What does this fold into?
Amino acid sequence: MPPVTDGIKFVTIGRMTTERPDAIHRDDEDRPGQAATPLDSPGVDESDRSVSFDRSLPELDPPAVEPICGPPETKPRGHLYYRKEKLRGACWEYRIEGGWVRAPGAKGERDILRHRFSFYRPREFEIPTADGLVRMARSGAEQWFFPDRWFSLLRFISVDDATIGYYVNFSHPLREIKPGYYHDLDLELDLWLNPDGSPTELDRPEFDHEVRRERIQGDWANSVEASYRCVASAAEKVVRESGPNLDIGRDPDDGHGLPPFILRA
It folds into this structure.
């Protein structure tokens, strides 16, 4: 089943970006005819594969990253903004609908940037859940950016806030460009997790291509691979301990709304 990120397109208008189902941003360097579409998976093909968790994997510690940005000491004037950059120069920018939140970590509380958005029109998918295949309409998503991890996380949701799936976007840790303005660098590899924990790896060939071309330097590639294993191991352990439901233990009213598996990672 194609991940429910299918169909999300972006168009850049000045400094800001809005979602539009008919818009697409092209980046033709090295791969003519392909579109650079963040948060978009046109379907499962040779670059996307369902993967099974390796139950022999231990629960791994994430790559050590010292946070390089966080909430300002004084509230900035106006809104917060985020810029997503691609390795070959494409970028998308949008205003953060949310703000900084605190979540528990191994060394105390962590600061995480939280965002939420809606789609112009819902789109229906059949989703594997603990109760079997369920038809759900994707209406929006919430997103978390981490200054101390090599990934960001999206939770795609229905109109009644049910989880449709999780999309882990492996990227350089969040940085601050100027007060109230943040960015990260997309490092190609992604992981889709259905609500029942079943995973699909996305864009492995693109990641390997950029490593070979040395646009992803060696230490970055190692951090991405280690982070991928860490997230996969954490999700597998949650499923093994609590059953096929990645949302068990997630509290939408705890101030951050993160699922337990990502807190472990």
